[in-house]
TrEMBL record:
Family: Belongs to the ATP-dependent AMP-binding enzyme family.
CDD domains: MCS
Name of this chain's protein: Malonyl-CoA synthase
Domain AMP-binding enzyme C-terminal per the UniProt entry, residue ranges: 414-491
PROSITE patterns: AMP_BINDING (PS00455)
Organism listed in the record: Rhodovibrio sodomensis
């Protein structure tokens, strides 16, 4: 057996071939046998269009069973899966494709014309498409293809996926994840969260980030579980399906939105076993309200694209709100100062981590990779943390200048560069302020060039950003000032801006 993660999945799939793998809201179901067949045909299609082992396959499509099959087909064909958020605009996609140089790009047919030009310019030789209902040039004529039955041999350290994560400099970096990284994390989570026969996962997360793909899907696949598959989070649909589910994973916004509903009740979740939250801090208040309403203690865990999951509150011991629990069994964590001095319990510093889940570095960026690792192999997460006397990890803030909105990361620098490039903008500062629904909301302060003050409007700047940036990165509000608040060193005082504008979205849903 090689190190290809798909071989491990196949063992489970063949043992469960008659069992349901995916069920859509309208009841359409694929068994594990049908899933295996579809994945084999898609792997054949990828090979047919010239994909070779180690080639990147970039995919920017809406969530569908076929999108999940394509992900698995990449593994079977020995390719490297490169998921892209469907919110990314043309200019953003252009950057990812020119950086990663994929052999094949699968896009949404509704954007095929725009994206085919971009992909062509980036040197992509095979451009296919897939719509939200599973049709497109990727799947055309699939039934006539013989399913690939073999799994391309891969070393455990070979790349399985590249996931882009934005960076402090404004440029996204491709985190390279190996088959070992994904497999170790999936097995660890499967065990730690007690996956068992009969578990049904309510899957409402997007498929193009670590949470929905490697955490939710991989654990369910390893368990041979059924996934109730929603194209996106929709409180009505979640409420309708919860009585048939056993496990749900979500970002805090999911839980905030459910609690707003009067029909989200104790009785509705009688069949549930586990609710997991992550990607952004879950407010202790939300945790308490959820427990009061349902009797369930949400299990909060912590992770990042570069390492998958790192810590988790326990399944069978006390889950502590406001903490992210203990390091996963095969993961080491420590808290250190900027200079690398390791700190004691209860002292606040930057969390550093090491384990089989830790990525192989940033694609094409060896210097950036080197900067973020200690000589003994620990990775510097950029999250401020402390480990308390009982060993629970608390994330207490971020050393990196990062906004997390509804579970999506936004690096202010990228938004500032976009604003600064707009005619009439002298400079800008982008910061996050509290938002009831999204946790934090992207907000900007802009200084106009002399004489151009009247040419700039809030709406004009937001619209201009939207042509360049994904919607979730686009500022929800823009304020104007004569100068940015700076300290004596000339550094923009973002903490000051966050405090000054903290009430901007008060009451916003
Ligand atoms: C959508 N919009 C947002 C967000 N999502 N604005 C700010 N933050 C967001 N997260 C904007 C759109 O641009 C649009 O704006 C408007 O909201 C409606 O869009 P729609 O897609 O209908 O929004 P929604 O359905 O309400 O989506 C909110 C959501 C979604 C359900 C919270 O964003 C979501 O599923 N988030 C999950 C993210 C995730 O999976 N993160 C994991 C990353 P306009 O109308 O103005 O254009 S992995 C990770 O972080 C690590 C590894 C970890 O630990 O998990
Ligand atoms: P990403 O770059 O999308 O992988 O996001 C990773 C970042 O999300 C981490 O570095 C943390 O800042 C944040 N994060 C993930 N889970 C949690 C959590 N449970 N509590 C606080 N922050 C979290």
């Amino acid at each position: 057996m090689s190190g290809n993660l798909y071989e491990s999945f196949l063992d489970v799939f063949s043992a469960n071939s008659g069992a349901p793998a995916i069920e859509l809201a309208d009841g359409t179901t694929w068994t594990y046998g049908e899933l295996t067949d579809q994945v084999g045909r898609l792997a054949r299609r990828l090979v047919e269009v010239g994909v070779e082992p180690g080639d990147r396959v970039a995919v920017q499509v809406e969530k569908s069973p076929q999108a999940l099959f394509t992900y698995l087909a990449c593994f079977q064909a020995g390719a490297v899966y490169l998921p892209l958020n469907t919110a990314y605009t043309g200019p953003e996609v252009a950057y990812f494709l020119s950086d990663a140089r994929p052999r094949c790009f699968v896009c949404d047919p509704r954007r095929a014309e725009e994206l085919a030009t971009i992909a062509g310019e980036a040197g992509v030789t095979s451009i296919l498409n897939l719509d939200p209902t599973g049709f497109g040039t990727l799947t055309d004529g699939l039934e006539a293809l013989a399913p690939m039955t073999e799994v391309v041999e891969r070393d455990p350290d070979d790349l399985a996926a590249i996931c882009y994560t934005s960076g402090t400099t404004g440029r996204s970096k491709g985190a390279m994840l190996s088959h070992r990284n994904l497999e170790s994390n999936a097995r660890t989570l499967h065990g730690t969260w007690g996956f068992q026969d009969g578990d049904v996962l309510l899957h409402a997360l997007p498929l193009f980030h670590v949470h929905g793909l490697f955490v939710a899907s991989n654990t369910a696949l390893l368990n041979g579980s059924k996934m109730l598959f929603l194209p996106k989070f929709d409180a009505d649909q979640v409420i309708r399906l919860l009585p048939r589910a056993r496990v749900m994973m979500g970002v805090p916004t999911f839980y905030v939105r459910l609690l707003e509903r009067d029909d989200f009740t104790h009785e509705l979740v009688a069949n549930m076993r586990l609710f997991v939250s992550g990607s952004a801090p879950l407010q202790p208040e939300t945790w308490r309200q959820f427990k009061e309403r349902t009797g369930f203690e949400i299990l909060e865990r912590y992770g990042m694209t570069e390492a998958g999951m790192i810590t988790s509150n326990p399944l069978d011991a006390e889950r502590r709100p406001g903490t992210v629990g203990f390091p996963l069994p095969d993961v080491q964590v420590r808290v250190a100062k900027q200079d690398g001095t390791v700190l004691d319990r209860d002292e606040i510093g930057i969390l550093e981590i090491k384990g089989p889940n830790l990525f192989q570095g940033y694609w094409n960026k060896p210097e950036k990779t080197a900067e973020e690792f200690r000589p003994d192999g620990f990775f510097i997460t950029g999250d401020n943390a402390k480990i308390d006397a009982r060993g629970y990890v608390h994330i207490v803030g971020r050393a990196k200048d990062l906004i997390i909105s509804g579970g999506y990361n936004v690096y202010p620098k990228e938004v500032e560069l976009t604003l600064d490039a707009i005619d009439g903008v002298k400079e800008s500062a982008v910061f996050g302020v509290p938002h009831k629904d999204f946790g934090e909301a992207v907000t900007a302060m802009v200084v106009a060039e002399a004489g151009k003050e009247n040419a700039l409007t809030e709406k004009g700047l937001i619209d201009a950003c939207r042509t360049q940036l994904a919607g979730y990165k686009t500022p929800k509000r823009v304020f104007f000032a004569d100068a940015l608040p700076r300290n004596t060193m000339g550094k923009v005082q973002k903490a000051q801006l966050r405090t000054d504008y903290e009430d901007t979205f008060q009451g916003a849903a």
